[in-house]
Design goal:
By secondary structure, the chain is of the alpha+beta class. It has a domain of 108 residues: Glutathione S-transferase Yfyf (Class Pi), Chain A, domain 2 (Up-down Bundle), CATH 1.20.1050. The chain contains seven helices and five strands. A five-stranded mixed β-sheet has the order 3-2-1-4-5, with helices on one face.
Length: 232
């Protein structure tokens, strides 16, 4: 399978789950500003919405939206410890937290990355974030994970969003349970492996681009030398 990602973006959530499941995924970097893949192809041909993540299966099926991708990966792997069986009460509670992260956390954090948002707007968003973090702090005071007693798909998503706190000026010190949760999650093997995979994919693309640039320069130099020789 192939995961379309952008470093530091919400696509990190399904990448954590891929490693939690012990699976492998080819990473395809997306330039979110230009909506282009490293190959130069238009990413919107994959996901018309233009944002990450998108998951492409071996059969060529495309899935978008984090809650859907997380459910697909867990269900496909039969990982009922990460996401309870469909139709069960536990499943509905798991989806409740998954949707809380998507609608109430992600959608209050992400606008603060917009450089066009005025400071008054960011301040208002931080007030909204504070309410959500207060609730989450209470939840994590009663259970070790956002998903409950055990790590689950909602934790992949929650950690990803909460890890942006420093970048948008959200201080987690007022929410000790949340701060401890983020600290512990950062040490989880699947999170460490996901970070390494992102870094490796990014570095490989960087080297490929540098090699292409060197090749172009060599070709240009050879062409100029040929022109000079012909002129002489």
């Amino acid at each position: 399978m192939k995961l379309y990602f952008s470093p530091g973006a919400s696509s990190f959530a399904p990448l954590i789950l891929v490693h939690e499941l012990g699976k492998k995924a080819k990473l395809e970097k997306v330039d979110l500003r230009e909506k282009k893949l490293a190959s130069g192809k238009d990413y919107r041909a994959v996901n018309p919405k233009g944002y990450v993540p998108a998951l492409e299966t071996k059969k060529g099926e495309i899935y978008t939206e984090i809650p859907i991708i997380l459910q697909y990966l867990a269900d496909k792997a039969g990982a009922t410890k990460l996401l309870p069986k469909a139709g069960s009460k536990a499943r509905y509670h798991a989806l409740e937290m998954l949707n809380f992260v998507a609608a109430e956390l992600h959608k209050t954090y992400s606008p603060m990355f917009n450089p066009a948002m005025p400071e008054e707007g960011k301040a208002a968003m931080k007030q909204r974030v504070a309410l959500r973090l207060s609730y989450l702090n209470d939840v994590l005071g009663k259970q070790p994970f956002v998903s409950g007693k055990h790590f689950g798909v909602a934790d992949c998503y929650a950690y990803t969003v909460l890890s942006w706190s420093g970048s948008v000026g959200v201080d987690l010190s007022a929410y000790p349970n949340v701060a401890k949760y983020v600290e512990l999650m950062a040490k989880r093997p699947s999170v460490i492996a996901a970070k390494k995979a992102e870094a490796t994919a990014f570095e490989a693309l960087k080297k490929k681009a540098e090699a292409a640039a060197r090749k172009a320069e060599t070709k240009k130099a050879a062409s100029e030398k040929k022109a000079e020789t012909a002129a002489a």
